[in-house]
Amino acid sequence: MTPERAAEGLVPEAKSLRLWDRLGIKTKQAVWAWIFLALPIAFYVGIRFYPTAQAFWLSLTDWNLLRPPNFVGLRNYAKMFADPVFWKVFQNTFLYLILGTPISLVLAFFIAWNLDRVRFMHGFIRALYFLPFLTTAAAMGWVWRWFYQPLPIGAINGFLSWLGLAQQPFLRSTTQALPAVLVPAIWAGLGFQVIIFLAGLRAIPQTYFEAARIDGLGEWAILRKITLPLLKPTTVFLVVFSSIGFLRIFDQVYNMTTNDPGGPLNATKPLVLMIYQTAFSSYQMGYAAAQTVVLFTILLIVSLIQLYVMREKT
């Protein structure tokens, strides 16, 4: 091979090397970052975006798993918005959110704030609070269901009887059933919230508190003017996380009302349970997909609102 041909064969490689060498360090770092991220992004698109798009498509069809989906347009949405059961379930879902999120966060902060001052057996007490978060929802739901039973089985009614108070129907009442289900749901997630609040409290520099005490501020003033403002990012994270959890509540409801899931008279039924029953009991997959789209929209709106609050106020 002549030297001229050898030189010609090296031209493309030399050009490519010169092009890569002309790139800046930051550009090269970005290229390598995208190369390493390509596979995770493709995986995420495959397991997230594609199923989401498929759910939107199925919500416009009539599909019962036995035949191909039949396009029906917005008929599923019209049926859903005309269904009084859907609006009852919609109300229940927001009751779980509106009641569960603030109550759980206030309790978790109160526990974390006091636990942060405890030094004796601090780790053991923290583990006790975190233990319900590790307990399976099915086991926890059945235990709480036993608590709510009438005499002579139910522990809570037994305690009320010992105090001389009347028995309560709890899970058999259309007014008491939802709060009765909400209590173990709050209790189950309390340990996680306590741990996150403790981490946020420990991240605040102690010099702020020392300077405030030197200036003569009391504990209540320190809480309002230092602790809560500096704990705002942690609080916003827990608000978003807890809100999504309560909007997607399912396990406690299903296990505690297993004889009549979501009962009595749909008094405890959340939207996730309605989707489950529509899809896997009635096999109306298109209708269930429409309900899923509504739930997705609710979660998206709530998350965006809370992210906006975080962006504006933190």
Secondary-structure-based class equals mainly alpha
User: What is the name of the CATH class of the largest domain?
Assistant: Mainly Alpha
The backbone outline, from C-alpha atoms, is: flat
Helical stretch tally: 14
CATH architecture of the largest domain: Orthogonal Bundle
Which percent band covers the strand fraction? under 5%
Gap from first CA to last CA? 69 Å
The name of the CATH topology of the largest domain is MetI-like fold
Reading the helices and strands in chain order gives HHEEHHHHHHHHHHHH
The helical percent reads over 70%
Strand order of the largest sheet: 1-2
Most strands sheet:
2 strands, antiparallel
Stretches with pLDDT under 50, minimum 5 residues: none
How is the topology of this model organized?
Blueprint: H1 3-22, H2 25-58, E1 61-62, E2 70-71, H3 75-81, H4 84-115, H5 122-134, H6 137-147, H7 155-162, H8 177-203, H9 206-214, H10 219-230, H11 232-247, H12 251-256, H13 271-280, H14 285-313
Antiparallel strand pairs: 1-2
Helix pairs in contact: 2-14, 3-14, 4-8, 4-11, 5-8, 8-11, 11-14, 13-14
